[in-house]
Design brief:
This protein is α/β, with parallel strands linked by helices and 471 residues long. It is built from 17 helices and 15 strands.
C-alpha cells in the first residue's frame, strides 16, 4: 500500500509527465472508482481540461485542471501509467485519459479499492473542505506541527500508540510501515497506550516522522510488494528500514532480535529492548505478618495515592464461582467451606499455617491469579505512581512488578504482641504464623526503603513522608 512518500513520488513523477497536457478524451470502465459523480459527468467535465498543477495532502493526490479538481486516493493497489495510444487496455485499467491526442494516461487498480472525486473548483481552500480531506490532521512532516498539538491530540486516547498514529485525523501521512519506524526511532512500544504519551515522546515522534519521511521521499518511496510509481520508479527506501519487515533479525541499535506482533490487527515490528512498555512507577510495600503494612497503605491512600492491596484482591478472587474458588473447592472440599458454601477464611488460614505442603498448593492457586490481577491493574492505570501492598511480595515474585520496594519492619517481640492481639491467638500460634514467612530481616535486605514501625504512628508517618520525597 502506497504511503505518503510513495504518493509524493507518484506526484513528482507525474508532474514531469502530464503537466500542461490537455485531456482530449476520457473513458471510465469501472464506475465505482468515481465516488461522487457518474462516469458520464466525469468524462464530460474533464474533456478539454488541461492539467495545471498536481498537489498532495497525506496520501491524497490532487490534480488541478482549468475548472475542476480530481482528488485521487490509490488505496491498496492504485497506480498510474503512461502508455502509447495503441497499446491494448488491460482489464485492470479502469480509467483511460487521452492526452493531447498523443499519449494515454491510465489508472490501473487490480483490487479496485482506489477512489477519485470530481470537484468543480480549483481553489485549494475549497478542495480541502472535501469531507475526506477535511477530517485529516496536520501532515506528519508539517514544520508547523508542534509537540503540544500532537500531545493534546493523543493524551486522552485509550488506544495503542500505533493505532493512534495510524489514525489520519490525529497525524496525517504515516502508514503501517512508517509508524513502526517512527516508534522505533522514538523508543516507544507500539502497544503503549496513546494516553501515556509525554511531551518528549510527542517531540520525538515529530522529529522521527520528518526524518523518516524525508529520507523515504528522497529515496522514491518504499517498495514492498506491489507498489511502483508511474515511471516504473522503484523505491529504494526498503534498504534503509530499521525494524519494518525485519522479524528475527538483530536490532540495529542493540542486537536484540526484532519481534513481530499484531497491534490493532496490523503486523507490527519492534525491538523489545529499545522499545520497552512503560507502566506507572510501582512501589511495592511488604513486611511480615502484623508488621504494619496496612498502617502504611492507609496513610498513602489518605494522601490520594492508589494502593493495590493483594489481600483485598485475594478476597475478591475467592468469591463463589471464580476460577480460584473452583480450584480451591475441588481440592479441599468442605475443609474450607462455611455453611453457605463460601470459603471460610479462618479454615483456610488454619490449613495454610499448619501444613507446608498444603500451603504451597494453596499459594500455587492464589498467587498467579493475584499476580495477573495486579499486572492488569497496573497496565490499565493512569497514575504516574502506584503502591502495591503484598505480604508475600518476594516469596511470590511480585518484586518483578516493582520499581522500588518498601519493607515495613518491626521487632519480633512487638510483632508477636500485635499478632496475638489482632488475631486472638496464642503466642505459640503467632510464632507459627511468623515463622511460616521469609524472615523479616531478609526482606529488609532486599528492599529499597525500610520503615521502622516499632514506635508510634507519628514516627512511622515521618518515615513515609521522607520516602515520598525520595520517590
Ligand atoms: Zn534494540
Amino acid at each position: 500500500m502506497p504511503e505518503l512518500p510513495e504518493v509524493e513520488t507518484v506526484r513528482s513523477t507525474l508532474e514531469g509527465q502530464i503537466l500542461n497536457k490537455k485531456i482530449t478524451n476520457v473513458e471510465v470502465y469501472y464506475d465505482k472508482i468515481i465516488e461522487n459523480a457518474t462516469a458520464k459527468t466525469f468524462e464530460e467535465a474533464l474533456t478539454n481540461q488541461t492539467f495545471k498543477q498536481i498537489k498532495r495532502y497525506g496520501k491524497y493526490l490532487i490534480f488541478i485542471l482549468n475548472d475542476y479538481a480530481i482528488i485521487s486516493h490509490l488505496r491498496m493497489e492504485g497506480k498510474f501509467f503512461l502508455k502509447s495510444l495503441d497499446e491494448k487496455r488491460s482489464k485492470h485499467e479502469h480509467i483511460v485519459f487521452t492526452l493531447d491526442d498523443t499519449i494515454s494516461f491510465r489508472y490501473h487498480d487490480t483490487r479496485k479499492f482506489g477512489r477519485m472525486a470530481l470537484l468543480k473548483t480549483t481553489d485549494m481552500t475549497s478542495i480541502m473542505n472535501y469531507p475526506a480531506l477535511k477530517k485529516l490532521g496536520k501532515e506528519a512532516n508539517d514544520p508547523t506541527f508542534t509537540k503540544e498539538e500532537l500531545y493534546n491530540k493523543l493524551k486522552n486516547k485509550k488506544v495503542p500508540i500505533k493505532v493512534a498514529l495510524l489514525d489520519q485525523s490525529n497525524i496525517c501521512g504515516l502508514g503501517n510501515i512508517y509508524v513502526d519506524e517512527v516508534c522505533f526511532m522514538s523508543k516507544i512500544h507500539p502497544q503503549m497506550l496513546a494516553s501515556k504519551i509525554t511531551l518528549d515522546d510527542a517531540s520525538n515522534i515529530l522529529t522521527s516522522s520528518k526524518e523518516v519521511l524525508a529520507k523515504a521521499i528522497k529515496a522514491g518511496g518504499t517498495t514492498i510488494r506491489s507498489y511502483t510509481s508511474s515511471l516504473g520508479v522503484t523505491g529504494l527506501f526498503q534498504l534503509e528500514l530499521q525494524v519494518r519487515a525485519k522479524a528475527k533479525m538483530p536490532c540495529p541499535n542493540c542486537g536484540t532480535i526484532i519481534k513481530k506482533i499484531f497491534v490493532g490487527g496490523r503486523g507490527t515490528y519492534y525491538c523489545e529492548n529499545c522499545q520497552k512498555l512503560r507502566y506507572p512507577k510501582v512501589i511495592g510495600i511488604t513486611g511480615s505478618i502484623a508488621s504494619g503494612k496496612t498502617t502504611v497503605s492507609k496513610y498513602l491512600e489518605q494522601k490520594g495515592y492508589k494502593v493495590l492491596d493483594a489481600d483485598e484482591m485475594v478476597t475478591k478472587l475467592k468469591t463463589k464461582s471464580t476460577i480460584v474458588y473452583k480450584a480451591l473447592v475441588s481440592k479441599f472440599n468442605d475443609a474450607i467451606l462455611d455453611d453457605n458454601q463460601n470459603i471460610d477464611d479462618h479454615k483456610l488460614a488454619k490449613l495454610i499455617f499448619e501444613n507446608q505442603m498444603v500451603r504451597l498448593e494453596i499459594n500455587n492457586i492464589i498467587h498467579p491469579a493475584v499476580f495477573k490481577a495486579c499486572q492488569k491493574a497496573i497496565s490499565e492505570s493512569d497514575d504516574k505512581l502506584i503502591f502495591m501492598s503484598v505480604p508475600l511480595l518476594f516469596e511470590a515474585g511480585f518484586d518483578k512488578l516493582c520499581d522500588e520496594i518498601i519493607c515495613v519492619n518491626i521487632t519480633k517481640e512487638e510483632q508477636i504482641k500485635r499478632l496475638m492481639k489482632r488475631s486472638k491467638i496464642t503466642k505459640e500460634d503467632a510464632l507459627l504464623r511468623i515463622d511460616a514467612q521469609m524472615p523479616l530481616s531478609e526482606k529488609c535486605q532486599k528492599a529499597t526503603f525500610i520503615i521502622d514501625n516499632s514506635k508510634d504512628l507519628c514516627y512511622t508517618i515521618e518515615q513515609i513522608e521522607n520516602i515520598l520525597k525520595k520517590i
